[in-house]
């Protein structure tokens, strides 16, 4: 028995942390079962260990000898918390087992909450198994059929007609911005792997002789995933600001299918060399070092200026966190990752209710955690306040609480019970602490606009 497997059986998280830091392979497959540590941790319901493995780079799409991915195990348990955690970190929602079944096939008749969650992450309800059956064919009770009717809008996301509309939408964008935005794939070269994201891998590369970041899709995007791609492209091409990562272009692969005539393969972005703010904070914590006060204020201004720009354009980011903020060689910050961003209601033809349960839970505003759909751009202000807190404490906000109580109770506690993070009163100026507390106020109306935040921070900077 290898050391990590033994530690998982014993439930020894500290030993696992020690082993992985010492270089043990977090994705090593068992010769007998083909399982990796994350497979085993989920199977044995070792929750804290599973969370640690996911957050430290476990490959969520490895298939064991029984044809199971970690997500399939989480669905079989069933554990909604673990399913959501895996999906947040890039698990393939449409992976299939030996019978051609997806996770949606397996739960649609048994667990409507998990089925709805899978669909919200792009699960295809028209995916056929080896017997040509779609998930709906697995339904045996009337209650589930009514569940399907309640979420009929989700099914429309996958109609060929709507897919065709998305393609036409791309063509309209291309006409507006000119063909120079479509990259020449022959001039693009991958150099080094950077990280795995929700839709695929991010690489450092070279395009036309210049360093770039390549956001490379590993599967054919469809339904809500495809909508997210076009939304991101539409936003990125319009965003020109020193605190927003610049978009170089994207590539489309031509296909013979008359419906799916184009297939997005990657987005090419400005390369920001020093990595993310979250990576820097993690390294500082390991060395017991802190960011200087003046640097925190400078960083806070950079983020606020970028967010003010987005909000002025009517765009809500919805996933603002340290992992989506990059550091330049000049020690300035740039905001990235607009896959979850959207226009506020009324700014485009996509009006009405906003999407619920969007973002990363630790930074998610209480109104989103409560499941409200009429939220405002102030959700970004809340997340911004938590990023300010991160820069002082170098930790993920509410990490211990989420580990202790699980996803559902966490949403209830932060959404309704109003827990507060400790203000760093002895480290930052009083005005900065007051601003931070206002940003994460439970009442969105009491949170400041980014225009006011920029003014307050500039006054604080000028006092020093």
Helix-strand topology string: HHHHHHHHHHHEEEHEEHHEEEEHHHHHH
What structural class do helix, strand and pairing data support? alpha+beta
Compute the average pLDDT.
80
Q: Report Rg.
A: 22 Å
What would you call the shape?
globular
- Taking strands numbered 1, 2, ... along the chain, how are they ordered across the largest sheet? 1-2-3-5-4
Strand content: 5-15%
For the sheet with most strands, the description reads:
5 strands, antiparallel
Describe this structure in words.
The protein is globular. Residues 145-167, 256-261 and 340-357 have low confidence and may be disordered. It has helices at residues 3-10, 13-21, 37-43, 47-55, 70-76, 80-88, 103-107, 112-120, 142-150, 152-156, 160-177, 223-236, 277-286, 293-312, 366-369, 378-393, 399-405, 407-417, 430-439, 450-463, and strands at 188-196, 200-207, 210-217, 247-254, 262-270, 315-316, 325-327, 333-335, 342-343. A hairpin with a 5-residue loop joins strand 7 (325-327) and strand 8. It is built from 20 helices and nine strands. The longest helix is centred in the middle third of the chain and has 20 residues, at 293-312. 43% of the residues lie in helices and 11% in strands.
What's the short version?
With 464 residues, the chain is of the alpha+beta class. Helices cover 43% and strands 11% of the residues.
Secondary structure elements and their pairing?
Layout: H1 3-10, H2 13-21, H3 37-43, H4 47-55, H5 70-76, H6 80-88, H7 103-107, H8 112-120, H9 142-150, H10 152-156, H11 160-177, E1 188-196, E2 200-207, E3 210-217, H12 223-236, E4 247-254, E5 262-270, H13 277-286, H14 293-312, E6 315-316, E7 325-327, E8 333-335, E9 342-343, H15 366-369, H16 378-393, H17 399-405, H18 407-417, H19 430-439, H20 450-463
Antiparallel strand pairs: 1-2, 2-3, 3-5, 4-5, 6-9, 7-8
């Amino acid at each position: 028995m290898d050391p990590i497997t033994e530690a998982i059986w014993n439930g020894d998280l500290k030993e696992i942390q020690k082993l992985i830091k010492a270089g043990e392979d977090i994705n090593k497959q068992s010769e007998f079962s083909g399982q990796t540590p994350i497979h085993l941790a989920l199977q044995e319901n070792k929750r804290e260990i599973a969370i640690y493995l996911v957050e430290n780079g476990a490959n969520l799409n490895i298939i064991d000898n029984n044809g199971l991915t970690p997500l399939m195990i989480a669905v079989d348990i069933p554990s909604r918390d673990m399913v959501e955690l895996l999906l947040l970190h890039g698990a393939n929602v449409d992976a299939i087992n030996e019978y051609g079944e997806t996770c949606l096939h397996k739960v649609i008749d048994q667990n409507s909450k998990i089925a709805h969650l899978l669909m919200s992450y792009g699960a295809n309800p028209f995916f056929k198994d080896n017997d040509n059956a779609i998930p709906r064919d697995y339904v045996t009770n009337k209650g589930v059929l009514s569940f399907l009717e309640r979420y009929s809008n989700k099914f429309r996301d996958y109609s060929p007609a709507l897919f065709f509309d998305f393609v036409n939408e791309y063509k309209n964008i291309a006409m507006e911005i000119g063909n120079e935005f479509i990259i020449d794939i022959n001039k693009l070269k991958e150099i080094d792997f950077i990280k795995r994201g929700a839709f695929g891998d991010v690489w450092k590369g070279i395009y036309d002789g210049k360093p770039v970041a390549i956001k490379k899709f590993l599967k054919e995007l469809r339904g809500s995933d495809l909508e997210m791609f076009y939304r991101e492209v539409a936003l990125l091409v319009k965003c020109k600001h020193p605190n927003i990562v610049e978009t170089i272009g994207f590539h489309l692969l031509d296909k013979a299918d008359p419906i799916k005539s184009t297939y997005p393969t990657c987005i090419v972005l400005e390369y920001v060399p020093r990595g993310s703010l979250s990576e820097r904070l993690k390294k500082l914590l390991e060395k017991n070092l802190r960011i200087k006060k003046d640097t925190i204020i400078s960083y806070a201004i950079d983020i606020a200026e970028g967010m003010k720009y987005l909000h002025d354009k009517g765009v809500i980011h919805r996933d603002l966190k340290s992992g989506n903020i990059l550091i330049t060689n000049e020690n300035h910050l740039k905001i990235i990752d607009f896959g979850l961003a959207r226009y506020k209601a009324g700014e485009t033809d996509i009006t009405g209710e906003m999407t619920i349960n969007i973002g990363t839970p630790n930074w998610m505003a209480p109104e989103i955690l409560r499941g409200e759909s009429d939220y405002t751009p102030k959700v970004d202000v809340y997340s911004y306040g938590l990023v300010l807190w991160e820069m002082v404490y170098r930790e993920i906000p509410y990490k211990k609480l989420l580990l202790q109580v699980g996803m559902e109770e966490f949403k209830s506690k932060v959404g309704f019970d109003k827990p507060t993070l400790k203000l760093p009163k002895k480290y930052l100026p009083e005005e900065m602490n007051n601003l931070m507390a206002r940003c994460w106020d439970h009442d969105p109306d009491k949170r400041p606009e980014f225009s006011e935040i920029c003014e307050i921070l500039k006054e604080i900077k000028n006092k020093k």
